[in-house]
Amino acid sequence: MNQINFSQALKSLSKDPVMAYLAEQFGHEITLSDRYETDHAKALALLVVEQQVSFKAAQTIKARFLTLIDGLNHSQILALDHDLVQGVGLSNRKVEYIKNIYAHFSEKPRDYGSKTAEEIYRSLIDIKGVGRWTIEMFLIFVMGAPDIFSKGDLALINSIKKNYAMDPLSDQDLDRLIERWRPFNTAASLLLWCSIEQKNFYSPGK
């Protein structure tokens, strides 16, 4: 899979005045290291922890989960008592999803580094509990895929609404923006996340 070239991405995106502003503000900050993890099963498990909980709660639960599995291999994690894993703050369903992930990687070797984003998506979507958003975050932060945009990420959608003054945001308008940013949707997403996290939005004349 091709890795993202931030310098090239920012230059291309800056043809769009909104992205040019965001690149000027946050181009030096964007990184893929936030969720990078060489253990792909662990990376996906941590993304499942993040689903539908606040950032603060996710950080607390992730820290407890990482302490629990420290030094364990995939088979040992699979063998952990269900209630013990749930005790770090996870729902019963999320524990099942995490066990499904580790089972997937225990079945056979998974060389995702040599696969395309589409091939990775088709493989991971078969895991119960791993949906589109989780795979898109995995592709962005773990695999470094350069052209991923997650339509299901509320923060991204809200950032677009603010920066582009498009509220409501139609599917057609969103698709046009995604096409405009191609093949650098990952860098565009990182800039949009920075924008909404820091409440710094583009407005004409800025």
Overview of this structure, please?
The protein has 206 residues and is mostly helical. It has 2 domains: 6-32 and 148-197, Endonuclease Iii, domain 2, CATH 1.10.1670.40; 40-142, Endonuclease III, domain 1 (Orthogonal Bundle). It has 12 helices and no strands. Helix 2 (17-26) packs across helix 12, helix 3 runs antiparallel to helix 7 and helix 10 crosses helix 12 (185-197). The longest helix is centred in the middle third of the chain and has 16 residues, at 92-107. The radius of gyration is 18 Å and the shape is elongated. It starts with 5 loop residues before the first helix and ends in a 9-residue tail after the last helix. The model has no long low-confidence stretch (mean pLDDT 94).
Q: Give the total of beta strands.
A: 0
Q: What is the helix/strand order?
A: HHHHHHHHHHHH
**What distance separates the N and C termini?**
37 Å
Instruction: Catalogue the unreliable spans.
Output: none
Number of distinct helices:
12
Shape annotation: elongated
Could you give the topology of this structure?
Elements: H1 6-13, H2 17-26, H3 40-50, H4 55-69, H5 74-78, H6 82-86, H7 92-107, H8 117-124, H9 132-142, H10 154-163, H11 171-181, H12 185-197
Helix pairs in contact: 2-12, 3-7, 3-9, 8-9, 10-12
